[in-house]
Write a structure and sequence with these properties.
With 568 residues, the chain is α/β, with parallel strands linked by helices. The chain has 2 domains: 136 residues, Rossmann fold (3-Layer(aba) Sandwich); 264 residues, P-loop containing nucleotide triphosphate hydrolases (Rossmann fold, 3-Layer(aba) Sandwich). It contains 23 helices and 21 strands. The strands form 4 sheets. The chain has a 6-stranded mixed beta sheet, sandwiched between helices. A 6-stranded mixed beta sheet has the order 17-18-19-14-20-21, sandwiched between helices. Strands 1, 2, 4, 5 and 6 form a 5-stranded antiparallel beta sheet that branches. Strand 20 and strand 21 form a beta hairpin.
């Protein structure tokens, strides 16, 4: 590997002017290099400045309110990027430096086919037209693993899965054989198997094309899969940087140590996951050595018994034809009182459909769900009302599930009013304040609106709203999937504490298998609407029986094994 820096960022400082006139210093003197044929991981939580740094490199910061301060320097192959004209930067982008963004659906134009958008890049930077451009577009789709590329070249973005959309974005990024690829959270919210495929693809492309890569992520678990060096950022500053081996085995900075420690381990279940504050107090962090017992003995009280649950959707094709899609088929399982059933599977496996059906948010096509001896699915709307209190759901996206016009206090009080919980308004306010405290929010949050909170705080409000009903069963549908690792650890600790205090039963749905193992007594694996395997959590991870379960487990990022392989 050459030591010559392909990209050199020195003392980068970026500020934003906010609507109220205040100045936000987003990046504060950041310096790092990317050498030829090297992958550097830029790691940090939301708001750390990593994506802003990447946008500054490409000259893509919003001109109306962002400013790179004097004294900053960005050089690519000894060329001053900050001193380039917009026209020169446009020529450089795509041709020599390309970027893969986090959300492909916001980057791909929905009204043009993927082939059209690929050919547009080839025309602009390589001057290809007609048949040659189309053949090159098909070859690029084949290179990134799009099946039946000759046909798919004419497909529109909405006709592709999330993983396929991200592959198209990668094809566009490598179309002109760039020397540097910037990948900004390219696997966030993807299934574990698709994530593994994308990481493998990026590693293969880098090696085959001799590219350098700047890989941006909030998950240190992915870094060992792809990176040579790591740069850890927090609050716009670099906290630590070094080789993957050094950072993972001998991290010096407390924040780096926290990021490494707060991901649920696979080999044990600490009573409490460490969080960032544990490591930043100045004193050595005390990692819990007490194990949390998990698993079922077989004599537990059953609170929910589901038999043959099915859900079919019907779609019209043309004027006369209808197509049936079996989203959930004959799901049968039991949920023990005070225990957690983990549910894993890829997108489209039927996990969320099962949750929505149990909540009566979508009607079942067949089966039963016995709760206290009564079938929830056959009750009338009036008879079902008391049971709605006792089964609640926390959705993945708190941005969409919280009414933006209500304060946190109003969001908590409204369900109490509907279900006549509390004698009067004063008592309900008291209950709401107590729930805010239990979920780790200050009393001042009572008067704030959803947009004034972070993503993790919004999810805490969503959990508190469910707790107003004092439920027996709480369904968590990807409730921590899109959160930073430290925020995720806080919420997992919270859910554990609430289960200990109230004896609630959880149905915990996630595509993150390490989180599911940490939280679950029993794990249910779903594929194509069917349950393919179910067992105690430790047993299913130690000795999976189904080939699909084995495939999921093999796709999990494993920091330790990768590092051992590097040093071997």
């Amino acid at each position: 590997m050459s030591n010559e820096p392909l990209l050199s960022v020195h003392n980068l400082q970026v500020e934003f002017k906010l609507d109220d006139g205040a100045i936000l210093h987003a990046v504060k003197g950041v310096s790092f290099d990317v050498s030829t044929n090297e992958t550097v991981a830029l790691v940090g939580e939301s708001g750390s400045g990593k994506s802003v740094s990447a946008l500054a490199i490409l000259g893509l910061l919003p001109r109306e309110n962002a400013r790179v301060l004097p004294g900053s320097a960005i050089h690519y192959r000894n060329r001053d990027l900050l001193g380039m004209t917009p026209r020169a930067l446009t020529t450089l982008r795509g041709a020599e430096i390309s970027m893969v963004f986090q959300e492909p659906m916001s980057s791909l134009n929905p009204v043009f086919s993927i082939g059209f958008q690929l050919i547009e890049v080839l025309k602009k930077h390589l001057g290809l037209n007609g048949k040659r451009a189309r053949e090159r577009a098909i070859a690029l789709l084949q290179e990134v693993g799009i099946p039946d590329a000759h046909t798919r070249v004419d497909a529109y973005p909405h006709q592709l899965s999330g993983g396929q959309q991200q592959r198209v974005m990668i094809a566009m990024a490598i179309a002109c054989e760039p020397r540097l690829l910037i990948a900004d959270e390219p696997t966030t919210a993807l299934d574990v198997t698709v994530q593994k495929q994308i990481l493998t693809l990026l590693a293969e492309l880098r090696q085959r094309r001799q590219m350098s890569m700047l890989f941006i992520t909030h998950d240190l678990g992915l870094v060992a899969e792809v990176a040579d060096r790591v740069v850890v950022m927090r609050d716009g500053e670099i906290r630590e940087q070094g080789s993957v081996e050094h950072i993972f085995s001998a991290a010096k900075d407390g924040y780096t140590q926290a990021l490494l420690a707060c991901r649920p381990p696979l080999d044990r279940r600490p009573l409490r996951l460490p969080v960032v504050e544990d490591f930043l107090s100045g004193a050595p962090a005390a990692i819990s050595t007490t194990a949390r017992p998990r698993g079922l003995q077989g004599n537990e009280e059953i609170i929910l018994e589901v038999n043959g649950l099915s859900k079919n959707f019907h779609f019209r094709e043309g004027l006369l034809r209808k197509r049936e899609f079996k989203a959930l088929q004959n799901a049968t399982f039991k949920l023990a009182k005070g225990k957690t059933l983990g549910v894993v599977g890829e997108s489209g496996s039927g996990k969320t459909t099962m949750a929505l059906t149990l909540m009566r948010l979508t009607p079942a096509s067949g089966g039963s769900a016995l709760f206290d001896g009564r079938d929830l699915l056959s009750l009338s709307a009036q008879d079902a009302m008391p049971y709605k209190r006792r089964i609640q759901i926390v959705f993945q996206n708190p941005y969409a599930s919280l009414n933006p016009r209500f304060t946190a206090g109003q969001l908590l009080i409204e369900p109490m009013q509907i279900h006549a919980i509390g004698a009067d308004h004063r008592e309900r306010v008291g209950l709401a304040l107590e729930l805010l405290r239990k979920t780790g929010l200050p009393e001042s949050a009572f008067f704030k609106y959803p947009h004034e909170f972070s993503g993790g705080q919004r999810q805490r409000i969503a959990i508190a709203r469910c707790l107003t009903m004092q439920p027996d069963v709480l369904i968590c549908d990807e409730a921590v999937s899109a959160l930073d690792l430290s925020v995720q650890a806080q919420l997992l600790n919270l859910l554990q504490d609430l289960q200990d205090e109230f004896g609630m039963s959880y149905i915990f749905i996630s595509h993150d298998l390490s989180v599911v193992k940490y939280m679950s007594d029993e794990v249910m694996v779903m594929k194509d609407g069917e349950i393919v395997e179910m067992n105690n959590a430790d047993a299913i991870y130690a000795n999976p029986q189904n080939s699909y379960t084995k495939q999921l487990l093999m796709a999990m990022p494993r920091m330790d094994s990768k590092l051992k392989g590097r040093s071997a």
